[in-house]
Amino acid sequence: MNSHRSGHPIVVLAGGLSHERDVSLRSGRRTAEALRSAGLDVAERDVDSGLLAALLADPPTCVVPMLHGESGEDGAIREVLDLLRVPYVGSGPAACRTAFDKPVAKSVVARVGITTPLGVCLPHETFRELGAAQVMDAVIARLGLPIVVKPARSGSALGCTLVESAADLPDAMVNAFAYGSVALIETYVAGTEVSVPVVDDGSGPRALPAVAIKPDGPIYDYTARYTAGSTEFTVPAGLPADVLAECARVAVAAHEALGLRDLSRSDLIVRDDGTVCFLEVNVAPGFTETSLVPLSVEAAGLDLGDVLASLVRAASARDARTTTP
Ligand SMILES: Nc1ncnc2c1ncn2[C@@H]1O[C@H](COP(=O)(O)OP(=O)(O)OP(=O)(O)O)[C@@H](O)[C@H]1O
Ligand SMILES: [Mg+2]
């Protein structure tokens, strides 16, 4: 029975303690504004020790988690929202755990035939036990150069480095391990980077227009992401129609294979021969002024507030149906 919730506002969660707190606050602000413009009554709230008491005292109709990075995307907060039986927009905790862990997500999507870059996943202890130099030599012997080193579980390209010469690998490993105990090392895939949002407001997952990303350096790193003007975005991406269709197919297939819900954004690279390579998927994609999903929504001729409001409606209806008294 959720009738006691009606009339309470939508709560947009933003902030939290992750490395991406700042980005999350900006995403939360934009999301709240968009929902208000669609006529919804929205409160913005940080994640802190007062949150549970506030949600219990005044249960919202629906929560919109705009939390990026560890606790926002690894399913932890959603696990707690499920405990409280508070409806929320987005994937459930188990799907988030799978998607947020890049090596795990890669193996799940590979099973449905999606191509991902050749890579190895190594915990910090392996370097200590076997000798860092020997392990790094083996990695380069197998993957060659250039390679990309990144934390297995992170976002906003934090701790992510392009390595073009063997001498730069140790620093790149240290950089990745600063954000977590496991690193993913992949062959560098040259081509056009595109990001494809997938939305499902109840009628099945559909891809929105692919956004092509052209950073001023070889990878779309943290600075390129959040410095206005340093990256060129083209939406819809200037790629042949059959390649765009393949990008959409891969993004929807990844969303389904990982058991995601409502909204996701897949990051892909299209090689020059047109093949599409899956890098990773985000369960809480950014909604800042320089973020990709709002650009794609606009290119689809849709209104950001309307899209978010339809996701809120679908989430509220779903959880009202599944929640037992
Ligand atoms: N194997 C690869 N080949 C080429 N470029 C790569 C590769 N892996 C990562 N990159 C580059 O590094 C960037 C960050 O990598 P990735 O998207 O995997 O990490 P992230 O930190 O989870 O980012 P996000 O904020 O999108 O969640 C990518 O946008 C891309 O530019
Ligand atoms: Mg990414």
Model description:
The protein has 325 residues and is α+β, with helices and mostly antiparallel strands. The strands form three sheets. Strands 8, 9, 10, 11, 12 and 13 form a six-stranded antiparallel sheet that branches. The protein has a four-stranded antiparallel sheet with strand order 4-7-5-6. Strands 2-1-3 form a three-stranded parallel sheet, sandwiched between helices. Strand 12 (263-270) and strand 13 (276-282) form a beta hairpin. 41% of the residues lie in helices and 20% in strands. The radius of gyration is 20 Å and the shape is globular. The structure holds adenosine-5'-triphosphate and magnesium ion. Magnesium ion (MG) binds next to strand 13.
Per-chain topology:
Blueprint: E1 10-13, H1 21-37, E2 42-45, H2 51-57, E3 63-65, H3 70-73, H4 76-84, H5 93-100, H6 102-111, E4 119-123, H7 124-130, H8 132-143, E5 147-151, E6 161-163, H9 169-177, E7 182-187, E8 192-199, E9 206-207, E10 211-215, H10 222-226, E11 231-234, H11 241-257, E12 263-270, E13 276-282, H12 292-299, H13 304-322
Parallel strand pairs: 1-2, 1-3
Antiparallel strand pairs: 4-7, 5-6, 5-7, 8-9, 8-10, 8-12, 10-11, 12-13
Helix pairs in contact: 1-13, 7-8
Bound molecules: adenosine-5'-triphosphate and magnesium ion.
Magnesium ion (MG) binds at residues 267, 279-280.
